[in-house]
Amino acid sequence: MSTGPTHAMSGLLAWSAVTALAESHPIGQLTPQSWAVGAVLATGAALLPDLDHPSSTISRTFGPVSAGASALINTISSFVYRTTRTRKDSNRDGGHRGLTHTLAFALAAAVGTTAVVQQSQKWALPVLMFVFAGLAVRGIMNDWCPQKDALLITVVSAAITGVCIAWTAQTPASAAACGVAVGVGCVAHYLGDAITEQGCPILWPIPLMGKTWFPVAPPKIMRMKTGGTVEMAVVGPLITILSVWLSAAALQQAGALPFLESFDLLPI
């Protein structure tokens, strides 16, 4: 599940599911403002791991800036792969589906996001929102937006950021929720990659079968081809439908959709 739209919607689905189902936990009791900010961050974070691939569409989101960042991330990922792989790991470059495709990275991204937002809601959160909104927009619009049209992505991302920041002006977003959202988005990406033919080295650096970069994946019969018929005709649409439903349920739970109070969107 590696196409942009599917990854993006899986991030939104994961965030919606976590917040809708955790009613008794603080993450399920967010204000509508914090939930919306988290939704943007999680959707964008579901594309974040692929910044380790300089040739990926997502790496061109903000033109030369994101391309340069992608090249740097790819170099670091390659170095970490080469220095930590075992004899049983494949002898490859290691840039893509390397460091950024591990739970260690997701945890670091979550903690880092929380720390940055805690430092400043005034400047740090808008910057993060802009970056992750850009990733989300690029992922969702991948099939309709020219790959090199960084200006359009920048304008749309700035608009989304402006709306969210204005909405949270009087009710600051939860820093912890922002961190959780980014972590959730990354994990959604890993799960999507895990069910493709290559698998995903989620558990690095834990050695499995003598490999520190063991590609976690279900049996081959349960895997699918990236961008294939199963993803485009079944998995992608299903994820989109579920994400919309659970988003509505989470927002209803947060008190943001009073007109849906008579409907029980999550009858559990």
UniProtKB/TrEMBL annotation:
Family matches, as InterPro entries: YdjM-like
Membrane-crossing segments per the record: 123-141, 150-168, 230-251
Swiss-Prot/TrEMBL keywords: Hydrolase, Membrane, Transmembrane, Transmembrane helix
Pfam families: YdjM (PF04307)
The keyword Transcription belongs to this UniProt entry's keyword annotation: no
GO-annotated molecular function: hydrolase activity
Protein name: Metal-dependent hydrolase
Taxonomic lineage from the root: Bacteria, Bacillati, Actinomycetota, Actinomycetes, Pseudonocardiales
